[in-house]
Amino acid sequence: xxxxxxxxxxxxxxxxxxxxxxxxxxxxxxxxxxxxxxxxxxxxxxxxxxxxxxxxxxxxxxxxxxxxxxxxxxxxxxxxxxxxxxxxxxxxxxxxxxxxxxxxxxxxxxxxxxxxxxxxxxxxxxxxxxxxxxxxxxxxxxxxxxxxxxxxxxxxxxxxxxxxxxxxxxxxxxxxxxxxxxxxxxxxxxxxxxxxxxxxxxxxxxxxxxxxxxxxxxxxxxxxxxxxxxxxxxxxxxxxxxxxxxxxxxxxxxxxxxxxxxxxxxxxxxxxxx
Length: 274
Ligand SMILES: [Zn+2]
Ligand SMILES: [Zn+2]
Known about the structure:
The protein is α+β, with helices and mostly antiparallel strands.
């Protein structure tokens, strides 16, 4: 198994376990070491349970003598065998710590993690902000960029919930979106520059080269002006930094801003005759 794949599974499991066992509280928390990124574990219980990718699928290991004592026989029964080996060994000192079981089935991982999370010693902490369900926790005043990333992160977290829980929460929405006051600054773009970029594009998107998808209320092909180097990144508000894009491509540039796309746009600007 790949580290990334296992990480995805474990993040989903973290959300599932926390919501199944204790709605609104964190029981277990996923952790991953920065340098050795295969070292993934859960904390929150007695000791730490590691789930690491292995040739067969997963290595489930119990770190900490107390946890070993608490869960060894459960794991023995669950896997139908003594531990595969120990992660920490030192023959000369006779040290044998962190027993692990090598398994191929994520269902076994799930059962082990549920057992770990159910233990009475497990700490409960309120879910940290911003939790996916906590729209009421949005700040009163916020700048646009912070709000956009806050909402995106919230939605990402929401999408990791088990579907049944996600839909239940959606049904519980109070249907009235809260309002916040936006603070901060905005750029006043030069209208002549924007209008010129659209004239030069002549109704065709500078990125995908498709015709504008619809006409504006003034019966002009609808395109949007875009700064190749963003104003917020110090880009110039001049015709040699502005292109005209269809709404799809414009969104794509703001979400992905791929270098290959930027180079296409720079090429279009360079190839203009006017
Ligand atoms: Zn386009
Ligand atoms: Zn733009």
